[in-house]
Amino acid sequence: MEKGGIEVLDSQVLIRETDFSRLAHTWEELAEVMKSQGDETTPHKLIQLAAKTKRAELNIAFCGHFSAGKSTMINTLLGVNLLPSNPIPTSANVVKIRGGEKAARVFTMNSGVLTFDPDTEMEKLKQFAVDGDTVESVEVSYPGTFLDEYASLLDTPGIDSTDAAHKIATESALHLADVVIYMMDYNHVQAEENFNFTKTLKDRGKPVYLVVNMIDKHIDFELDFDSYKESVEEAFATWNIHPDGIFYTSLAEPDHSENMYAEFKGMLAQLITDREKLVGTSVRSAAEHLIDEHIQVVRTSQADQRQQWEAQLDGLEVEGIDSRHAAAVQEALEQEEATAAALEQRAEDARMQMEKELSVLLDNARLTYFSTNEAARSYLESRKPGFKVGLLFAGKKTEEERARREEALLVEFREKVAGNLDFHFKEWLGKQPQVFDLRSEEYHASVHATKIEITGEFLSKHIKEGAASDEYVLNYCADISSGMKLEYRRVGLSFIAQVVEMIKEHVRVESAAQGERLGVLREMAALHQKLAGLAAREEETKGRLLAIMRGGEQVA
């Protein structure tokens, strides 16, 4: 498709030279950030990736068993015996072969770049790699093959175990591979390292093609070849591995009826044709994976601190709680803090509850009736100025009458208070400690021994001068009722204060035991917060690197 005079093969693939250059600059920027965080390994891989990206170079990596015929396959594909039967030992574990001017270059740690003749000096190159400086990498260029200067084959060391497969997958230059060709000996297809290695590559998003070599070993009468192929596919599917293609080859018997060598070589040629599209997708995937590798480096750098805090967690114990389980610790802490807050609030809540119930009890207590009103009317009349009884001995009779009427009102009012308030008041107060799971015989006895006296002085102090109407009688009865309830409220509040003190003492004892558990939980939570901080740093770092990567892609 044409867009603005520029060929666009895929919305996610950019093929202009400037696009690849900008992406390469982004990988270099990522490398600088990683270096600043103390990573000494991943930035080098990103610089390698940047160099490959600038050239939009396609790398096809050949991996497989020592016995799978990998070197022979590469030599056959190239049409020239560039690779010796034994691998070239290098610390980088990879030999790159590409088209271009004939040369074999060894990149060393101390002696720079050394050049050999690939036709005559490959054994000399091998010897140098064994005895000379530390070799970083080997690159062979050779003209006249199906490769050009922008397409390379990567020859990786042979895999002889699961550990070796893992090492090559994680430590070699496979981050530079756009496509992986995994070769297996006909007799060793279902070896565990094959599944582990190819699954690792597929999980990294790399195209993987399987080559089952040496099919000339197949004995048809034991198992027909179609059934053999079916067993191979089923074995990989069992591991949830779905290769991009499977080729069955024989170099010893080129005319073997099941030989797919020609199809395999044709597929490689097509990959080279699609180079820019493949590279555009691959370098992004590789950069994302290198970001993950860097995060692992960050995680490793924090390992000692993490282990120290985890060891501290292991040393803390709270019954019923797994100290390593952050969510369980947090939930227990929240519950314990809620309990602590409830303990602190318990006394005040109890006070408010009891004061509210006392108010309801007093408000609902009826202390004056019609009989009370009549006794009050008679009493109030005797207190009016000019009240007089009889003619002879009037003074004495008047005082006696006043005393009689006062006593009548006292008896009436005391009876109503005793029946409608005092009994219920003491019954309610006496039960309050039990409401809060407390017990005090002394308190209970004190409540029931309490006496609130109703005296003539109490009655007289509520009289207002000049009050003589029927309405006032009602008001007076209301006043003595309110006055008496006020006395009961005062006494009730003093007993409530005693109950509150009992609750506070109980809370002090309970808080001492609860406080130890709370302290340990708070220590656990603080350690988990520190551990979460380490994880947050890793996530923040990853987010920052991905943002740089996405920003570079948008610019490109």
UniProtKB/TrEMBL annotation:
InterPro entries (UniProt xref): Dynamin_N, Mitofusin_fam, P-loop_NTPase
Residues of the Dynamin N-terminal domain: 60-213
Coiled-coil annotated spans: 299-364
Sample GO molecular function, one term: GTP binding
Pfam families per the UniProt record, alphabetical: Dynamin_N
Alphabetical keyword list: Coiled coil, GTP-binding, Hydrolase, Membrane, Nucleotide-binding
GO cellular component, one term: membrane
Cellular localisation: Membrane
Organism domain of life: Bacteria
PANTHER family hit by this protein: SARCALUMENIN, TRANSMEMBRANE GTPASE FZO1
Protein name: Dynamin family protein
Lineage: Bacteria, Bacillati, Bacillota, Bacilli, Bacillales
